[in-house]
Design brief:
This protein is α/β, with parallel strands linked by helices and about 325 residues long. The protein has 13 helices and 12 strands. The chain has helices at about 1-10, 10-20, 25-40, 45-55, 70-85, 100-110, 130-135, 160-170, 190-205, 220-230, 245-255, 275-280, 290-305; strands at about 60-65, 90-95, 115-120, 140-145, 155, 180, 215, 240, 265-270, 285-290, 315-320, 325. It is elongated.
């Protein structure tokens, strides 16, 4: 801007107002400023402008990881909605590390983002570092993963219902020893999926067997390891419902390597409806999480928080309903 002002012989204020189409600047001056700006390839520094004004049209998003379908699709939903509203999106990965999550928050606050949308890392055990966001008056919306017991604005899937549907489907196929790969129970998603599994067993009058519930890291290797442990039981399971797709894919690989038939000997169902479920052989039954809709709903909730600034706003949790996609890995009684 200083270069433009010097070459045109006007003040920086005049240049600034001309670039922002201010009514106090005449058409001839505006045209001269814009013509020279184009010639010199001038690009406005939106971050600097945000720092001056104390606000921006940038939205911060923190996810545990970006690989795989789930978070990538949620972020796509956020970006689509944000772009329509004139917002740019800054994406940060915590890499499932609460220390990195704290650094992400500090980075976004320094950038004067208009709001922060976050899904917490698997190592996040308390809410204290998020209090900083609230103290700065920055709208904060959680999606998918939240911390139980905290009064937060969030967009969630009905994980309990999704797990119930998946486990009930396995029971309806004639399975009676249904095992469960359970994730970290301090995270709402895994706690609720475990409860949905237990609800389905109860609906069939089946008492839960702790030997059939395996703590799992939701990775391929962990899924294979948990499956190997289950096969050592005096009476192995005839089905497995996993709280994540990567783990159930690991189980599938191990079963195939051992010559155990899926679904005839062990039926399988997962959660997330990742792309890998469609290329596995057999294709894997899984619960879809309506990912793009979750991202768009998270952005809408952010805009509601902004609109309610200075007025009463009750904490809101938007709950989306899951959909079970039944495929060959669980079908013992023909097509659905």
């Amino acid at each position: 801007m200083a270069d433009l002002a010097r070459e045109l012989g006007v003040s920086m204020t005049t240049v600034s107002r001309a670039l922002s189409d201010h009514h106090s600047i005449g058409p001839a001056t505006k045209q001269a400023v814009l013509k020279l700006a184009k010639k010199l390839n001038y690009q406005p520094n939106h971050l600097a402008a945000a720092l001056r004004k104390g606000k921006s049209k940038m939205l911060g998003v923190i996810v545990p990881y970006i690989e795989g379908r789930f978070f990538a699709s949620v972020v796509h939903g956020i970006e689509t909605a944000a772009s329509r509203a004139g917002f740019s999106v800054i994406i940060c990965q915590s890499s499932e590390d609460v220390g990195q999550e704290r650094k992400n928050l500090d980075t976004l606050l320094r950038a004067q983002v208009a709001g922060i949308l976050v899904s917490v890392s698997r190592t996040t055990m308390d809410f204290r570092h998020f209090e900083k966001v609230r103290k700065h008056g920055v709208p904060l919306v959680f999606f998918d993963r939240i911390l139980e017991g905290d009064n937060v604005n969030a967009v969630l899937l009905n994980d309990r219902e999704g797990a119930y549907q998946a486990t009930l489907h396995l029971l309806e196929q004639g399975c009676r020893r249904v095992a469960h790969f359970a994730g970290l129970q301090h995270l709402n998603i895994y706690k609720n999926r475990r409860q949905g599994y237990l609800d389905a067993l109860q609906s069939y009058g089946i008492a839960p067997d702790e030997a059939l519930i395996k703590d799992c890291d939701m990775t391929l290797d962990s899924g294979a390891g948990c499956m190997a442990e289950l096969l050592k039981l005096p009476t192995p399971p005839d089905a497995v419902f996993s709280a994540g797709d990567s783990a159930i894919l690991g189980a599938l690989q191990l079963l195939k390597n051992r010559g155990i038939r899926v679904p005839q000997d062990v039926a399988l169902a997962g959660f997330s409806n990742e792309a890998l479920t469609l290329v596995a052989e057999p294709m894997l039954t899984s619960v879809d999480q309506r990912t793009e809709e979750m991202g768009q709903a998270a952005f809408r909730l952010f805009t509601e928080l902004v609109a309610a600034e200075g007025s009463a706003f009750s904490q809101r949790q938007v709950v989306l309903q899951p959909q079970l996609f039944v495929r060959a890995s669980s079908l013992r009684k023909g097509s659905v």
